[in-house]
Design goal:
Blueprint: E1 2-4, H1 5-21, H2 23-33, H3 38-56, H4 61-75, H5 80-95, E2 100-102, H6 103-121, H7 131-146, H8 151-169, H9 192-209
Helix pairs in contact: 1-3, 1-9, 2-3, 2-9, 3-4, 4-5, 5-6, 6-7, 7-8, 7-9, 8-9
The protein binds adenosine-5'-triphosphate and magnesium ion.
Length: 211
């Protein structure tokens, strides 16, 4: 499976559509354990990314990711803007000037992006953040690919694993961000950032499957 630049552009456009659709849901999750802005943040950020896409579509994947990251960084406040911004900027450096990637290259670049998120946000596994989706999903997907699973099946595995990871955040106690101020009262609620990461991963499968 070759993931072309048009697939990457379709992924980012799908993210914008998904966050517009799920804005209220994400905001409600953030109302329970945060400040009720996560859906607004993600929708605003990816709306700006979608507006940017026509102007950068002739560039390589690294440039597209870099512009996406810079846009998220500059248009989304709070914790999630800088974290998702860092994700795309770091991933951009990993893919460089390529205009097509195989799934392994893309997953490796996404792992580099997540390393940047961890350096910036200092979250450990189990802290009830987006990292509780990013890290296990990418590890499982890369392992499956290394074991010979077909890329189409790996994309489906990413989607189901992301769902499971989101559910696993419900019983975690938040150790990072505003939700951590609630202490034990953060237990029993699904993490908004973990949910937006799951949606971003599902958007990738949808974008690649569209062909
Ligand atoms: N240090 C961190 N590392 C990784 N993810 C984090 C961190 N802090 C917060 N998050 C993620 O960001 C989400 C909240 O994003 P939001 O857009 O609501 O920004 P925010 O209101 O500034 O966040 P917060 O109140 O958590 O600081 C959380 O649900 C969590 O998944
Ligand atoms: Mg918030």
């Amino acid at each position: 499976m070759l993931i072309e630049k048009t697939d990457i552009l379709a992924w980012l456009a799908q993210c914008a559509a998904t966050y517009a659709e799920q804005m209220d849901f994400l905001t409600e999750l953030d109302r329970d354990i945060g400040d009720a802005d996560h859906g607004l943040n993600m929708n605003r950020g990816f709306k700006h990314v979608a507006e940017l896409l026509p102007g950068i579509e002739r560039h390589d994947i690294g440039t597209i990711f870099k512009n996406t990251g810079m846009t998220l960084l500059s248009s989304v406040g709070g914790a999630s803007g800088p974290l998702y911004g860092t994700f795309f900027i770091r991933a951009a450096a990993a893919v460089g000037s390529r205009t097509a990637l195989n799934l392994k290259d893309l997953l490796d670049a996404m792992s580099v992006g997540v390393e940047g998120v961890v350096v910036r946000g200092k979250a450990n596994l189990g802290d009830k953040t987006m990292c509780d989706v990013w890290i296990p999903v990418l590890e499982k997907a890369k392992q499956a690919l290394a074991n010979g699973m077909e890329p189409e099946q790996v994309l489906a595995l990413i989607s189901t694993t992301a769902d499971e990871c989101v559910v696993s955040t419900i019983m975690m106690q938040a150790k990072k961000g505003r939700a951590s101020y609630l202490g034990e009262r953060s237990i029993g609620h699904q993490d908004p950032g973990a949910t937006s990461t799951m949606l971003m991963l599902k958007a990738l499968e949808q974008a690649i499957k569209r062909k």
